[in-house]
Amino acid sequence: MRTKTKQYAVWAVLALSAISLAKANSLVTFQVDMTDAIATAAFDPATQTVAARGTFDAWSPFALTNNPTGPNTNLWTGTYNVTSNVYNGTTVSANGTVMSYKYTIEPGGTYESVYLGGTHNRLLALPSTSGASITAPQVVFSDAPLTPITTLVTFQVDLAQQINTGAFDPLSSTAQARGFFNGWGSSAIAQTNDPSILRTNQNGLVTSNVYVGTYEIVGSPGQTMDYKYYIDTDANWESPAPSSGDPVDNNNRFFNLGSGPAQAVPIVFFNDSPYAPVATNDITFQVDMSAQVLTGNFDPSSGTVELRGDFNGWGTPQIFCTNDPAASNTNIYKTVVELKDGVGASHSYKFWSSVSANGGWETMADNRAVTIIGGPPNPTPHILAPVYFSNVDPSDLLPVDTTVTFRVSMTNAVGTDSHVFDPGADFVYLNGVPSFGTWDGSLLPQLTNNPVGSQAYSIDVLLAKGSPVQQTYKYGINGNDNEAPQGNNHVRYVRTTGTYVMPLDTFGAMVVEPSFGNLQASVSTTPDHVLISWLGRPGVFLQTKTSLPGGLWVDHPETDGLSSTNWPSGGSSLFFRLVKP
Questions:
Q1: Is there a single domain that holds both residue 414 and residue 439?
Q2: What is the phi/psi pair of residue 12, to 5°?
Q3: Are residues 341 and 405 in the same domain?
Q4: Closest listed residue to residue 262, CA positions, set 215, 194, 223
Q5: Residue 142 three-state SS
Q6: End-to-end CA distance of the chain
Q7: CB atoms near residue 535 (< 10 Å)
């Protein structure tokens, strides 16, 4: 059994319905000081400009400008209406989410680095109210000021619930703030209780269990700093709710360093767990390894699956998951773990496989989370629905080897480097398809002129069983990633197995296809039938229902991977919809 949120297309009989969603927005003002970059010759304002890129615009450049008559002529600013934000890989409304961004020098998209964070992005919490305005911290490009600042930063964590559950003993345990600023603990100091800070919980009880510590941080104003709280008893790192879609954020907290002599980060509950009554849950964890079996990354005959989380030191002691050889889906592995904590407390975890890539760990950026529920009975059974390992749905993978033809028209093609395509001297390459795993270079596959003498080019690529149905790619002139700016790609779906010919692309016109949809009913050439057509793909099939208010939807798995079918017409109404389980 698999209980899982499904994706649906709007149903249709003879007419289609439309859904529109109002987009919330946040007005964000960016500001970056280029004074130090000019002084070090990293930036030349006479020949170069500055842009902001981030999850608010798919990392495309948003041009900033300076004010030649302003008090700081080297301050580049600009205001952007952020209507959506990519959070954990999903495009959502901007409000209340965390935006990842960086500044770049143009042309060429030279990204800044982030002090102490390496490839980490800058982070900004967006307003929760639609239409609200926010100004990003004024920062120095690449966090490289010629004169760093010194700021006393006070960290504050409420340990009332950890004391309540025994995870923290005020007489013997130590709490610390660990992050970029102290090498994630290499020079951490113990925080001490401040009895003057009183907190009232959701049950009206007052506690004074806030532990406080202050660090002297030398850095750059506005820089993004990651951190977490840590309890030395059982090496207990907290795993707060994910703060952003940044792939290197790893469920960390963050703050942006102020420009003044001192600042305090807000008081938070350790592990986001407020003081609450304690409950014991017998939690059933389940993971579906079907996609890993399909791709060859897991062999049920020899591989093992483990549950790892903050409740077992992320692997010690080991918690093994087992499958049921008699079940309808033998690829579901499960285990039961007893957890005792406050009602509403969240615990982080991931699954681990002995033969998977990424060192065995699931590959999504953020950890999974389970919330403690109240009883009775005690312990309370808590059965979690099965999840796919690394959130990879097997229906998003090709079930068999499939030859896919990629095609592009090079008529009037011009690269982002302003190179005008010359069919007599230039060559066309395919960038980014997983079979090749690269975006530019000499190893890219070369397309051939087809038909000869035209401006159309094509190539047949064998995608192995287990390859993604969704293909993200670009074309390049002479092996360069020069069809469109970074992050702006073609996204199409392999809609039939065995062989499939992609629609003809136009160089520079980036197309992002919907996964499936466009469900329509029309007159069929077959007597006594109705033509039902849709934008199909493997893993998507029709469902029917005789009445919308009641009854159950009936699966038609025989339509999986099709794009049309002639349906026998009858005297009663019949409703159709597409479903991707």
A1: yes
A2: -150, 145
A3: no
A4: 215
A5: helix
A6: 12
A7: 18
Pair 376, 403 in one domain: no
Q: Tell me, rounded to whole angstroms, the distance of Cα 514 from its chain centroid.
A: 18
Residues 156 and 176: their CA atoms lie apart, in Å, by: 10
pLDDT at residue 440 in the model: 60
Other C-beta atoms lying within 10 Å of the C-beta of residue 362: 22
Question: Phi and psi of 548, rounded to 5°?
Answer: -70, -40
Residues 297 and 412 in one domain: no
* Bridge partners (DSSP) listed for residue 258: none
Does 185 share its domain with 206?
A: yes
CB-based burial label for 5 (10 Å; 0-12, 13-18, 19+): exposed
Q: Compute the residue count for the chain.
A: 581
Asked if residue 172 is part of any domain, the answer here is yes
In the numeric block, which tokens belong to residue 338?
Answer: 């007893």
- Is 536 domain-assigned? yes
CA separation for the pair 129, 350 (Å, rounded): 33
- Give the contacts of 371 (CB within 8 A, at least 6 positions apart): 344, 345, 346, 347
Do 243 and 159 share a domain, yes or no?
A: yes
Query: Are 346 and 273 a contacting pair, CB within 8 Å?
Result: yes
Burial (Cβ within 10 Å: 0-12, 13-18, ≥19) of residue 4: exposed
Nearest to 149 by CA among 266, 30, 256: 256
Whether residues 173 and 193 fall in one domain: yes
293 Rama sector, left if φ>0, alpha if ψ -120 to 50, beta otherwise: alpha
Q: Which residues contact 263 (CB under 8 A, 6 or more apart)?
A: 151, 152, 153, 154, 257
Phi, psi at 85, each rounded to 5°: -145, 135
CATH classification at residue 378: 2.60.40.10
What is the Cα Rg of the chain in Å? 28
pLDDT, tens only, 410-447: 999 999 999 999 999 999 999 887 655 566 655 678 89
- Rounded to an integer, what distance in angstroms lies between the CA atom of residue 495 and that of residue 501? 9
In a domain, 131, yes or no: yes
Tell me the per-residue pLDDT of 461-507, one tens digit each, with 9 for 90 and over: 999 999 999 999 999 999 888 999 877 899 999 999 999 999 999 99
Whether 203 and 241 map to the same domain: the answer is yes
The total number of structural domains in the chain stands at 5
Q: Is residue 295 part of a domain?
A: yes
